[in-house]
Structure prediction request, 189 residues.
Amino acid sequence: MSDNLKTIRELADEFKVSKQAVRKRLTDEFRANYVETVDRNGVATLVVTVTGYMLLKQHFSSGNDSEKVGSNVGGNTGNIDATSDSKQTTENGYVFKILEQQLAVKDKQIENKDSQISQMQNLLNQQQRLALQDKKLLEEYKAEIKELKSLNIPKQGSEKYDSIPKENSAENRVKEPQNKKWWHFGRRM
Prediction:
């Protein structure tokens, strides 16, 4: 079976009591609140929820004295006495303690998530600011580059181009005779 839902047999084995002792503890009110019927392979099986398991565990771990068994039997017949009322109050108190502990854990988890969300928002804001700064710097650099290009590029037909000699141009190169004969390749100089 699953960890959350236990059968009567599993409960009896765990608490080291008989199945009848567990069944005696399952009053009509207990069954209405803490017992479910599950179909397994076409067989209806009674299982106890986690809260019901906690209540049964508290009952059986505190011991089986005759007074508790008597009040339990009285609870099955519908007779309510002072012992069963105080026991029900104790059980309810135990359930409330469990629920309060769960709420405290959930509150801590929510606080943790809130702080994580706050940190993520701060990081996102910081990232957006940096992106804007980068964009501004990029625009400034582009403008600077345009200014530098406009200063370096002279207009066509200007005197600068006319005064610069074209030393490496093909027209100004003097063609030197090349001595390429085959018998010079093997010679060392």
